[in-house]
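Sample entry follows:

:::
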Amino acid sequence: MCKYNHPVYWENLLAKQTRPWQSCSVPFEAAQQAIFINTAIIDYRRNTLDNDWSCHPDAKSLLGFIQYLHLPLAFYYTLNQDREALYFPIATSQEFMEYIQETDSPYAHVMIEAIMELTGFWELDNHTCLERLKDFCIKFNEFWYQDHFILNMNIFASTYEIAEYLLNINEFPEVLEEDFGLSTNQLFRMCDSFYHEQFMHKNFVKILNHKIGCVI
């Protein structure tokens, strides 16, 4: 079994530090294989904005992160409307689906279907798994763009995809510079440096979290 396909791996990761995925764990020599994801939980009623950028060494690591950490975090928060704090419910997918089934949430069947769909990705090769995860996120984002709250995930196969995405959501370069303090040239230079300079490789995800932030 793939080590990422078990809640114990993610439980041990959480035990080491708070949100350790916010630091780049991909070795510099494997930078070309790095995959990025931006996740967001926005709840206007509870005044919550939880936003994370993270970097993963391959598609299966990303799959495990989504299945065992982010979806349980997002779904548990959605199911428990009286909670203010975010909480990672570490459990097997079967245990968490049983928990969802016991609730009276109108979203229960959608949540269970999402987890079951992800469970089927483990047998895929890395390339196919990544493409299926991207498709999964498109459908996920469309459904969870609600009036009072938003759950969102965007996957990027390279730093250059991040740059292109930021340019697409900011129609004019001057808007990009005003929002993020980066010119177009500086943005692409930063993205290129991730693959060639160890300092930027080490700090790229931190910059995404502290300078770029939420990109819905």
